[in-house]
Design a protein that fits this description.
The complex is a heterodimer. Chain A is α/β, with parallel strands linked by helices. Chain A has one domain: 4-Layer Sandwich (Metallo-beta-lactamase, Chain A). Chain A has six helices and 14 strands. Chain A is globular, with a radius of gyration of 18 Å. By secondary structure, chain B is mainly beta. Chain B is built from one helix and eleven strands. In chain B, strands 2-1-11-10-7-8 form a six-stranded antiparallel β-sheet, with no helix packed on it. A five-stranded mixed β-sheet of chain B has the order 4-3-5-6-9, with no helix packed on it. In chain B, a hairpin with a 2-residue loop joins strand 7 and strand 8. The radius of gyration of chain B is 21 Å and the shape is elongated. The chains are: A alpha/beta, B mainly beta. At the A-B interface, strand 14 of A face strand 8 and strand 9 of B.
Chain lengths: 300, 121
């Protein structure tokens, strides 16, 4: 059962086109999961525009199940440029979290008022419906179990776990894990020690084949950005180690980081995992990469 | 001589006859490890199958490769490398991929072969 994960936008905060970000890409958050033909999309940053182009080339009417971490600009700006929503016959389900939570669908429409965008939301010809994940924030969609988790971010954000036939992919961006540590001073006092990440977050990510996780800051960047809603990449590594994750995709790259700096961050994270005796495989999420989460990630 | 420097006239047309190849570099696969290295393979347009099979457009003779291992297709976003459910997989910069848009300097591993992608101009 193939579980395909396509990265359409991996950058955090603001699009960053140009030579310095050419390899990893400058589009903001948008990730597609294709589980046995069911299309699940996380966020609609500027990467969603290119996803729309790709989906328009696929056969038959679309049904896109859309999940949002939150409504900050870098997670919604691609939606008005997502061509399929203009086409009759395609269906889009915008999920909120708990019972009756339709705010994501409502907030998406808000950015398509005339003061912001020339086309009004009401002019979209696709069938756009709001849904929720029920009282326990868990729901089954075409045999895929979707679970939702509250995260630490200004205004709140949500992470999602998708699981089918024992293959689990977790999408967790815009989560300042460092603010959730039981001892927030530990990384300063003993930077090399494995950090005390909350048990419920570890359980949420437990045994994931792939964890796509916010890793915006280097250790040296973070002290000036406490409370901005993003973690140290090294803390993300500790979460993945504790949860027994197999592959960690560093995500939501800092707009100030060049390709070379992203690669330096990957090297630092790999060194940390190795120092803790973990065989966790770490890489930087990259636009234009499609992975099969259900396959082993090492040669041979 | 009165000390004046006299420049010869140059016709503008002299510049236009410079061969085009001075200005462009082709897209290349540079095989850096494995059988048949060193070797440069110039990449063209369209879609090509990579593998050890005799019917592959890009035939690479390595026992680790499947007969039809991968495809390489030139798209409007760049070269797209895709695994054809090969036995040993396709890796780009150590990441096992189902498909990847290639960028200059990427290292591709197919079986025991290592290839560096050089983006042309």
């Amino acid at each position: 059962m193939p579980v395909l994960v396509r990265f359409w936008g991996v950058r955090g905060s603001i699009p960053t086109p140009g030579r310095a970000t050419y390899r990893y890409g400058g589009n903001t958050a948008c990730v597609e999961l294709d589980v046995d033909g069911t299309t699940l999309v996380c966020d609609a940053g500027t990467g969603a525009r290119e996803l729309g182009v790709e989906l328009m080339g696929r056969k038959g009417p679309l049904h896109v199940h859309w999940f949002f971490s939150h409504m900050h600009w870098d997670h919604i700006q691609g939606f008005p440029f997502f061509t399929p929503v203009y086409v009759p016959g395609h269906r889009f389900t915008i999920y909120g979290t708990r019972d009756g939570d339709t705010r994501f669908a409502r907030l998406l429409s808000g950015q398509m008022r005339s003061a912001y965008f020339p086309v009004d939301f009401s002019e979209l010809r696709g069938n756009i419906e709001a849904a929720d994940l029920g009282p326990t924030m868990e729901r089954e969609i075409d045999g895929v179990t979707v679970r939702c988790f509250e995260q630490h971010h200004p205004g709140l954000s949500y992470g999602y776990a998708f699981e089918k036939d024992g293959v689990k992919v977790v999408y967790s961006t815009d989560n300042e894990i460092d603010m959730m540590l039981r001892d927030p001073e530990q990384p300063l006092r003993d930077p090399g020690a494995l950090r005390d990440v909350p048990a419920d977050l570890v359980d949420f990510c437990r045994d994931a084949a792939l964890l796509i996780c916010d890793a915006q800051y280097r250790d040296e960047d973070y002290p000036m950005r406490v409370g901005w809603g993003h973690p140290r990449a090294t803390t993300t590594v500790d979460l993945a180690i504790r949860a027994g994750v197999k592959q960690l995709a560093l995500f939501h790259h800092d707009p100030m980081h060049s390709d070379e700096e992203v690669e330096e961050l990957v090297a630092a994270c790999r060194a940390r995992a190795e120092a803790h005796g973990s065989d966790l495989f770490i890489f930087a999420a990259r636009e234009g990469f499609t992975l099969r989460a259900d396959l082993p990630h090492r040669p041979g | 001589m009165d000390g004046k420097v006299i420049f010869a006239r140059t016709e503008m047309t002299d510049i236009s006859v410079l061969p085009q190849r001075l200005f462009t570099r082709p897209h290349l696969f540079q095989v850096v490890a494995g059988e048949a290295m060193p070797r440069n393979i110039t990449l063209g347009d369209g879609k090509v199958t990579i593998g050890r099979g005799s019917d592959c457009g890009m035939r690479l003779l390595s026992s680790d490769l499947s007969r039809k291992h991968a495809t390489l297709e030139r798209t409007r976003r760049g070269y797209l490398l895709s695994d054809l459910e090969s036995r040993n997989g396709v890796f780009v910069n150590e990441v096992r991929i189902e498909s990847a848009l290639l960028r200059d300097g990427d290292t591709i591993q197919l079986g025991n072969m290592q290839i560096v992608y050089h983006e042309g101009s």
